[in-house]
Amino acid sequence: MTPARVAFVSHNASRSGAPLLLLQLQRWLLDHSDHELVTVLLDGGPLEADFAAVGPVVGPDDLAGLDADLVYLNTVGAAPALAVLPDGPKVVCHVHELDYALTHWIDEADRDRLRHRVDRFLVVSQLVRAALERCVGVDPGRVEVHYGFVDVAAVAAGAPAPAASGTRVIGASGTHVIGASGTTEWRKAPDLFLALAAAVERRRPGGEYPWVGGADRGPEIDGVLADRDRLGLTDSVRFVGEQPDARAWFAAFDVFALVSRDDPFPLTVLEAAALGVPVVAFDSTGAREFLADGCGVVVPYPDVEAMADAVVRLLDDGPGRAALVEAARRRVRADHDLGVAAPRLQAAIESVLAS
Amino acid sequence: MSAPSDDGRGTPDVVFVSHEATRTGAPLMLLYVLRWLRDHSELRFEVLLLEGGAIEADFAAVAPTTVVADIGPGRLDGVARRFGAHRLADRLHERRRRAALAPLRGASLVYCNVLESLAALPLLDPGPPDRVVVTHIHEMRAAFRALAPAARAQLRRSDRFVAASDLVRELAIDHFGIDPERIVRHYECIDVEALHATPPPAEAVEAARRSCGIPVGAPVVGAVGVTGWRKGPDLFVLLADHLHRREATRDVHFVWLGADPEAPETRSLRRDVERAGLADVVHFVAPEPAPGRWFALFDVFTLTSREDPFPLVCLESSLLGTPIVCFANTGMAEFAGEGECGFMVDYLDVEAMAARVTDLLEDPDRRAEVGRRASERVQREFDYRVAAPLLAADIERWRPRR
Q1: Would you state the pLDDT for residue A39?
Q2: What is the per-residue pLDDT for A167?
């Protein structure tokens, strides 16, 4: 393949799903192609240095003069870049967003540019494909599903071996640990996590419920914390904020609860699977596509009682749990490992470049 | 209505301060007390509103009323502002406001209808040395935490406190450090006669039902309030989900009245309802000036608030004989009781709330019986003709004797 100039536009450099995924893809391309990579950051964040290690990083002011063969928009949040982009480059847009973001985060002018300027859409789940058709009017024929991925070996290597070290970050022996992870915004539903904890406690008291990531105090979470305290769950439901060793927390979970109201295709679920932690989720999220066929448990949104039942079943049913964990581990290795998914994305990029 | 005139009416005995004149609990409660005082006492009083609102004219009909926010810039501060001298303009504006309020400064008692109204005190300084400040507290934890510094700074100046429910009184003592000897409870009240005199026409009720696509005869669970977190509209959706999962209650509809269609929370809730597959049965309806037609549609009234001192909408709904189900941590639990005028369930226990609502829907006799007791109790205790004199008597008692 002929070396090309590829510019990746990211809406920011936060330590969240889409920028992390982009970094992995860029690192893959660096090792497996001769393409010249440029990153355009529309806003900053803690991953800036990581992007700079991959190649030159420029800002929004440089968009108009961008000399590239292909522009890769990392989310629809990067769609405003289309307004100033020169006519030359081909455009690929990777979509991780669902209805609310597609309707309210971008405006009609952005949606119009997406419809007309983008050559191919890569989406992270079937749920996103449907939302893109419904909210932006994109013909599904121009859309390819590329599920999210993680570096399975790195994830597994990053976790401590609990049996060997005996140092669990949470949960005394015999305590059940039901964990969650993500930002603490409404969409991710820390309020429903609290409801889940209360429902599990009614069935099986004495558990611990850590939420890793997001805010540990402040206006976004104060209401939930007040509710938690009033429910008498102050010591058991803990919002521990960003953690440098999130995987060590995950590894200590008996069950990973994805309580999101909507979520296009959360990478945390893949990480949990790679670490051998069973996952329960609502059917309103893209996670259901990964968890299908016995790779996890999916319950109707927002039936917290059903989710609590599923959690208790996973705690009690050793063989069932083991089968589920094994199926999820197989699937994450087969379909959602960097080594499998990145070449597919690379092929999509090559085919747009060649078109 | 903008500034008090010097029409020789003299210094009032009492200035009643309301943070605003919206059609909400605290301003309405104040309006009722003032109507009673006008008709039954010799007290000379005026009203000071920090902001205006829909019932501003109702206040003005009872007593001379000044809206602080309406004391606009004068010619001098306008000139100062045009020349960019903003601090001078602010000082001139402040001076105008103080001049406009000079006639109120002699009042020997200032009543603040909510904690936020305490921010008005500096405008009424200096007052007589024996002036008494009374503050009516409707705020609970979250509202107290969010109290503006300008009001918080005045809190220690208040000599007496009124609490909107026993629960508010307990919180004020335990969390805000208020002396138990200085705080008494007065429940809010409504105008029973006025509500009886203007029952919603049957066709208006029908129109409400049709506007949501609710079939004739389908049971309706209602709730009223803004769509902020404190009122628990998210819990209302969970409640609906609980009932909708059961075959026997699948035909129940859920109406939340008071959802501003432009508010981002309302949009999120609508989306949430779609996601949960409840779009046909859960209805978020915009607020209406005369919401009585909706109350008439409800078979059971739910209060899903995370905290709420003593919402008037519950009294209005109860007057119609609709039983209420609420969480135990709201002031309404004091009214509802355990099956007396409604039911309370443990805080956030949506499953228990769903069970109570289901029981009431499936047992019309019980519903009627609880509803009848609720209506009788509202008429007996919560009509302003009964409740306002009690508060008015305390105000008279606290006023310095000259």
Answers
A1: 97
A2: 46
Asked whether A15 and A45 are in contact (CB, 8 A), the reply is yes
Task: Tell me the CA end-to-end span of chain B in Å, nearest whole number.
Answer: 30
**B312 closest CA partner among B1, B28, B11:** B28
Instruction: Give yes or no: residues A23 and A94 share one domain.
Output: yes
pLDDT of residue B85: 81
Nearest alpha-carbon partner for A155 in A61, A276, A247, A40: A247
Q: Which residues in chain A are closer than 8 Å to B231, comparing Cβ atoms? A: none
Q: A94 with A159, same domain?
A: no
Q: Which parts of chain B sit beneath pLDDT 70? A: 1-9
Domain count, chain A: 2
What Å distances lie between residue A115 and A82, A92, A97, A119, CA to CA? 11, 12, 15, 9
The partner residue sitting opposite B306, judged by closest CB among A186, A227, A301, is A227
Residue B172 and residue B201 in one domain: no
Which residues in chain B touch residue A104, judged by CB atoms under 8 angstroms apart? 267
What DSSP element (H or E) covers A220? helix A219-230
Residues A101 and A63 in one domain: yes
pLDDT at position B5, please?
A: 45
- The rounded mean pLDDT for chain A is 93
The SS3 assignment for B345 reads strand
Which chain B residues in 143-172 lie under 8 Å from chain A, judged by CB atoms? none
Q: What separation in angstroms does the CA of B164 have from each of A274, B6, B346?
A: 55, 35, 21
Q: Give the C-alpha distances (Å, rounded to integers) separating A19 from A136, A256, A305, B94, B130.
A: 22, 23, 34, 51, 65
